[in-house]
């Protein structure tokens, strides 16, 4: 058992999608939200307070202005693997038209007209 209080092979990682810590065992390729069996909870509390409780990891913390985070921006076209969506039953735009739409969104983002907070 190390300073984290976790059993051998386990480590604390941080989920970017949920902004929460989780526990990972690399040897067994297991991840979980709850501490594994055999954890010294008092040691873990101290470890988490020192290493995982900074204001940057708190929900609602401000990110640097020059950083954005996006999973992806998808504009389907008629040659897409599945040229349909919940919005359009048949997509007829060309790949170049789809690319143009994406470039238009990119320009609006760079000008500060839109952000992920007010994405259409």
TrEMBL record:
> What does the record give as EC number?
5.2.1.8
Compositional bias annotation for Basic and acidic residues = 81-97
Q: Pfam families per the record?
A: WW
Instruction: Give start and end of each WW domain.
Output: 4-38
MF terms (GO), sorted A to Z: isomerase activity
Listed SUPFAM superfamilies: FKBP-like (SSF54534), WW domain (SSF51045)
Catalytic function, reaction form: [protein]-peptidylproline (omega=180) = [protein]-peptidylproline (omega=0)
* PANTHER family assigned to the protein according to its UniProt record, in alphabetical order: PEPTIDYL-PROLYL CIS-TRANS ISOMERASE, PEPTIDYL-PROLYL CIS-TRANS ISOMERASE-RELATED
Q: What is this protein identified as? A: peptidylprolyl isomerase
State the species of origin: Apiospora hydei
Q: What is the lineage of its organism?
A: Eukaryota, Fungi, Dikarya, Ascomycota, Pezizomycotina
């Amino acid at each position: 058992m190390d300073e984290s209080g976790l059993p051998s092979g386990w480590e604390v990682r941080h989920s970017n999608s949920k902004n929460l810590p989780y526990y990972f065992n690399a040897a067994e390729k297991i991840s979980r939200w709850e501490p594994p069996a055999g954890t010294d909870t008092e040691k873990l509390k101290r470890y988490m307070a020192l290493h995982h409780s900074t204001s940057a990891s708190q929900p609602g913390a401000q990110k640097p202005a020059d950083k954005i985070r996006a999973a992806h921006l998808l504009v389907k076209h008629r040659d897409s693997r599945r040229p349909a969506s919940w919005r359009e039953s048949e997509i007829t735009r060309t790949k170049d038209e789809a690319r143009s739409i994406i470039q238009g969104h990119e320009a609006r983002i760079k000008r500060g007209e839109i952000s992920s907070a007010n994405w259409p």
